[in-house]
Amino acid sequence: xxxxxxxxxxxxxxxxxxxxxxxxxxxxxxxxxxxxxxxxxxxxxxxxxxxxxxxxxxxxxxxxxxxxxxxxxxxxxxxxxxxxxxxxxxxxxxxxxxxxxxxxxxxxxxxxxxxxxxxxxxxxxxxxxxxxxxxxxxxxxxxxxxxxxxxxxxxxxxxxxxxxxxxxxxxxxxxxxxxxxxxxxxxxxxxxxxxxxxxxxxxxxxxxxxxxxxxxxxxxx
Length: 221
Hints:
single chain, 221 residues, alpha+beta, 2 domains, 6-stranded antiparallel beta sheet, 4-stranded antiparallel beta sheet, 16 strands, 30% strand
């Protein structure tokens, strides 16, 4: 009997795309009062719901609150820690759940020396530079100085198409445009501008890590 904790979580059970929307069957974490038999059980097994990053965040918030309100003995602490390990091993990672299905996963590391004329524009707030070096991203990477010593790096391949001849985003100021569909994206946030309200799932630009140390900006994935 479920007596203490019951929350919908977004661990992946199906990864099919229909009408532009990734769906999965919701599951719930369930535990008895002994915390001894945590398990995943289907809820509404024939129903598919959208999954977003906020769902996974809420899972951990709910779990932390649950532990804080039920840990009254060493046995409860031990059970809670065991359940947390199980949650970490079974729950979907943030990278996996949010992964853009149109763009393949690529690993790279690239240093931009801002003392070089090619990248010196990044020393000034609001400027962007396109990195078109082979092996860096899929179609290259846009790096932007967004101010307050913060940098953001985005994939140059259109996030709503598989890589093809028209999918390299073209820059015009702080906006880039996809020639495949004329969608525009912000280089400051990576967000799709004027997002269609037609019920389909549209992706923002794929973001990579960007950190600065001294005169060097490291972008990686």
